[in-house]
Design the sequence.
């Protein structure tokens, strides 16, 4: 896999180019994230990037919901508390936090564990979650506006994360773990394989669709993905690119 920190920076640059092109009216437009405008989505990304550099890396504390609040509920509370920033200020705030993250994560030696939402993560895995979140929210921003946001080979990181966390996804749903092999076609036509090729459960199809299912941007039945084996359909139903 390509250097995760370089790819994180590249994902930020792609989103930055899309955001820089938006008009004030587009910033106020509803996003595909329910109840949030485009500005709200960018504010959320700025807040979570500040949590990476300010809490996880500098302070060593976790980005956790308060008692009785879900992660999504906390995100809504945080956005509501700061909603209304002018787009130019909001973009500058996100840029300051985001563009500091790759090098800040890269600076940690192997074996480091950084606090995050549910579980301490390695810097590489935390960088992977940031690619996954920015990519998914970039879709929330660009799709309703008809702004292009092409899929790239960086989806390999997102697909890896989705497969790597299947055990967690099964557990969240109260299901026993099961071995799953994912054979996916990359945006450039390359083949990506995750898991044991001899596993009794297999998911095949486009990586772009698999990642969207994991991000809850598509339902499995809206895709051409195929699930073969006694637990493959369960895996496709519970797969996620995030921890919540």
Sequence:
């Amino acid at each position: 896999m390509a250097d995760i920190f370089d790819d994180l920076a590249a994902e930020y640059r792609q989103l930055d180019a899309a955001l820089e092109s938006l008009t004030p009216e587009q910033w106020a437009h509803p996003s595909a994230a329910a109840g949030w405008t485009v500005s709200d989505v960018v504010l959320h990304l700025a807040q979570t990037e500040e949590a990476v550099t300010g809490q996880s890396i500098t302070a060593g504390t976790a980005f956790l919901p308060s008692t009785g609040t879900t992660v999504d509920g906390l995100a809504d509370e945080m956005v509501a508390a700061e909603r209304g920033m002018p787009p130019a200020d909001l973009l500058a705030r996100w840029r300051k936090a985001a563009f500091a993250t790759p090098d800040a994560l890269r600076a940690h030696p192997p074996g480091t564990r950084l606090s995050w939402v549910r579980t301490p993560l390695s810097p590489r895995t935390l960088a992977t979650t940031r690619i996954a979140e920015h990519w998914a929210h970039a879709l929330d921003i660009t799709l309703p506006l008809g702004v292009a946001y092409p899929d790239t080979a960086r989806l390999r990181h997102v697909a890896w994360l989705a497969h790597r966390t299947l055990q967690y996804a099964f557990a969240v749903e109260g299901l026993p773990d099961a071995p799953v092999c994912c054979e996916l076609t990359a945006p450039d036509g390359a083949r990506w394989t995750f898991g044991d090729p001899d596993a009794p459960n297999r998911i095949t199809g486009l990586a772009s669709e698999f990642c969207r299912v994991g991000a809850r941007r598509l339902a499995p039945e809206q895709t051409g993905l195929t699930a073969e084996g006694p637990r493959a359909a369960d895996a496709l139903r519970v797969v996620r690119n995030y921890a919540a």
The chain has a mean pLDDT of 92. The domain at 155-238 is CATH 3.30.1050.10 (Nonspecific Lipid-transfer Protein; Chain A). The first strand starts at residue 180 and ends at 185.
